[in-house]
Amino acid sequence: MDEKIKFELEFPIHASPQLLYQYISTPSGLSEWFADNVNSRGELFRFIWDGAEEQAKLVSKKSGERVKFKWLTDDDEPYYFEIRIQVDEITKDVSLMVADFAEEDEVDEAKMLWENQISDLKQVLGSA
């Protein structure tokens, strides 16, 4: 299996960090923009898209700041995705920082997927 490449994206968002955190850290929030449906039992999250299901473990979270999930795959890969809320100390502008991994030939596709997902989030928040 090829090594995956880490990439990071930044999305300016007009919403309070507290509100954003609800959308990135709770099953009900995530199911409004990230997947068709999201269920959780403790640290285990089930993401459902068009009948396909993926499971991820909530590896770490910091209230109001970030969440980090690791996909549960058959192998023991070190890959994860992290969504972080960043507030500029001077301007108070809020951005979502996304860190994820993809195969070298799939990085552009993965970035486009995130852009679409965050666009959905902005619509839900009314900040599009």
Lay out the secondary structure.
Layout: E1 5-12, H1 17-25, H2 27-30, E2 37-41, E3 44-49, E4 52-62, E5 66-71, E6 81-87, E7 94-102, H3 107-125
Pfam families: START_2 (PF19569)
Protein name: START-like domain-containing protein
Domain START-like: 1-126
List the defining traits of the structure above.
128 residues, alpha+beta, Alpha-D-Glucose-1,6-Bisphosphate, Chain A, domain 4, 7-stranded antiparallel β-sheet, 7 strands, 25% helix, 41% strand, START-like_dom_sf, START_2
Task: Outline the structure in words.
- This protein has 128 residues and is α+β, with helices and mostly antiparallel strands.
- It has a single domain, classed as Alpha-D-Glucose-1,6-Bisphosphate, Chain A, domain 4 (2-Layer Sandwich).
- It is 25% helix and 41% strand.
- The protein is built from three helices and seven strands; from the N terminus they run E-H-H-E-E-E-E-E-E-H.
- The chain has helices at 17-25, 27-30, 107-125; strands at 5-12, 37-41, 44-49, 52-62, 66-71, 81-87, 94-102.
- It has a seven-stranded antiparallel β-sheet with strand order 1-7-6-5-4-3-2.
- The longest helix is centred in the C-terminal third of the chain and has 19 residues, at 107-125.
- It starts with a strand and ends with a helix.
